[in-house]
């Protein structure tokens, strides 16, 4: 049993669990009792693998970034999740969860989204399966991620705006949970990250673990070893990171680096650096590290990237941080934007701004010439083009 994965009660060390109102208990309990058995069915695995291969386009390449490697004097590989159908890793999870919802006999899907990639991935699989889809998105995110909103609508989804609080991801999640409470029987909530009550963090991590599973095989072929010296990924809730770290968690020789959004500076009051600023608390049904005031009110997070401005992190990541298994780095808006431009110019790959945060680590840390570094290139920058245009006055 891994000491970094969830136990049977959904705890990662001191973090996790299911802290939910009584009205949600039947929903999560139905899922908890059934999810592992459903996932292990031959029929489920067969359809899941078929769709990942022929619909999503897996396996995604593990690309050796020659010019980036030369610039930083080390070996850098990119796990190209940006090449997945819909443009990010999110679809790995939504394919798994739509099959889970079908197995449970659900007729309606709800989801929350920040950057819009999870919303698009959810709308995509609902269109694929002919199931009703409602996406909740913060009012601010709707305006800054307009292309993804259009995609969701084109795919047949209903997009509902969250107008409370910071009008971003946290508030969209609140609205989705309210919907779920009101529609407990026929609705499945496709949570987009390794957050929420058990079994969601574990289930989402399992669906995303295809990333590290492929990385091991690909690295063995390219470098003669399954193990890189470092795996690096950005963390908001943290599903792309969970997927990239998953098969390396118990391999202590592999250094794990999780990269958070420092916004305008960790202590600027406009940040989403949960590991640096967070204390133990409960958000959206799980016990984790959470940005909060002295009296326990959630602090509004901020990041230039719509997918990283969440005030907590998934319980797996909270445990990786508190156990010191992973190193957490906080990257500012300016550092992330510069890193995104650098990757674009050196490799011809425009990353999502969330993803760009991870690449900024190269400016923070010196790596050895014989190090083998795998970055999760978790999403492409199409959705962020307007932000890039405005920031760099292109």
Throw out a few tags for this protein.
single chain, 394 residues, alpha/beta, Rossmann fold, 2 domains, 17 helices, 43% helix, globular
Layout of secondary structure:
Layout: E1 11-12, E2 15-16, H1 25-40, H2 42-56, E3 62-64, H3 66-72, E4 75-79, H4 90-103, E5 108-113, H5 117-129, E6 132-138, H6 139-144, H7 146-154, E7 158-162, H8 169-182, E8 187-189, H9 200-208, H10 210-223, E9 230-234, H11 239-245, E10 255-263, H12 274-277, E11 279-283, E12 286-290, H13 315-322, E13 326-332, H14 333-347, H15 353-359, H16 361-364, E14 372-376, H17 385-392
Parallel strand pairs: 4-14, 5-6, 5-8, 6-7, 9-10, 9-14, 10-13
Antiparallel strand pairs: 1-2, 3-4, 11-12
Characterize the structure shown.
By secondary structure, the protein is α/β, with parallel strands linked by helices. The chain folds into two domains: 11-52 and 90-204, Rossmann fold, CATH 3.40.50; 59-87 and 209-392, Rossmann fold (3-Layer(aba) Sandwich). 43% of the residues lie in helices and 18% in strands. The protein has helices at residues 25-40, 42-56, 66-72, 90-103, 117-129, 139-144, 146-154, 169-182, 200-208, 210-223, 239-245, 274-277, 315-322, 333-347, 353-359, 361-364, 385-392; strands at 11-12, 15-16, 62-64, 75-79, 108-113, 132-138, 158-162, 187-189, 230-234, 255-263, 279-283, 286-290, 326-332, 372-376. The strands form four sheets. Strands 3-4-14-9-10-13 form a six-stranded mixed sheet, with helices on both faces. Strands 7-6-5-8 form a four-stranded parallel sheet, sandwiched between helices. A hairpin with a 2-residue loop joins strand 11 and strand 12. Helix 4 (90-103) runs parallel beside helix 5. The longest helix has 16 residues, at 25-40. The protein is globular, with a radius of gyration of 19 Å. The chain starts with 10 loop residues before the first strand and ends with a helix.
């Amino acid at each position: 049993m891994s000491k970094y994965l969830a136990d049977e009660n959904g705890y990662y060390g001191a973090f996790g669990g299911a802290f939910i109102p009584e009205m949600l208990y039947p929903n999560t309990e139905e899922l908890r009792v059934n999810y592992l058995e459903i996932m292990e069915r031959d029929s489920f695995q067969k359809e899941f693998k078929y769709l990942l291969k022929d619909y999503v386009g897996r396996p995604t390449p593990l690309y050796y970034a020659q010019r980036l490697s030369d610039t930083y004097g080390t070996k850098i590989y990119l796990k190209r999740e940006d090449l997945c159908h819909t443009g990010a890793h999110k679809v790995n999870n939504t394919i798994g969860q739509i099959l889970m919802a079908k197995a449970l006999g659900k007729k309606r899907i709800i989801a929350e989204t920040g950057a819009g990639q999870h919303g698009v991935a959810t709308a995509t699989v609902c269109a694929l399966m002919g199931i009703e889809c409602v996406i909740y998105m913060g009012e601010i995110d709707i305006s800054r991620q307009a292309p993804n909103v259009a995609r969701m609508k084109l795919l047949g989804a209903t997009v509902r705006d969250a107008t409370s609080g910071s009008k971003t991801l946290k508030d969209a999640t609140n609205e989705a949970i309210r919907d779920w409470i009101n529609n407990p029987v026929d609705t499945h909530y496709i949570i987009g990250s390794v957050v929420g009550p058990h079994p969601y963090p574990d289930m989402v991590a399992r669906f995303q673990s295809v990333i590290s599973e492929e990385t091991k095989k690909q690295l063995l072929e390219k470098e003669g070893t399954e193990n890189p010296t470092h795996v690096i990924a950005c963390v908001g809730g943290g599903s792309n990171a969970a997927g990239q770290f998953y098969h390396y968690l118990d391999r202590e020789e592999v250094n794990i680096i999780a990269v958070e959004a420092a916004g305008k500076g960790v202590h600027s009051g406009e940040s989403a650096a949960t590991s640096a600023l967070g204390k133990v608390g409960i958000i959206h049904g799980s016990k984790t590290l959470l940005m909060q005031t002295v009296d326990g009110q959630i602090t509004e997070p901020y990041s230039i990237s719509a997918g990283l401005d969440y005030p907590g992190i998934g319980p797996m990541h909270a445990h990786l941080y508190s156990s010191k298994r992973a190193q957490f780095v906080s990257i500012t808006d300016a550092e992330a934007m510069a890193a995104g431009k650098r990757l674009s110019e050196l490799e011809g790959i425009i990353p999502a701004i969330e993803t760009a945060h991870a690449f900024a680590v190269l400016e923070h840390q010196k790596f050895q010439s014989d190090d083998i570094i795998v970055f999760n290139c978790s999403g492409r920058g199409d959705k962020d083009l307007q932000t890039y245009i405005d920031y760099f006055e292109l």
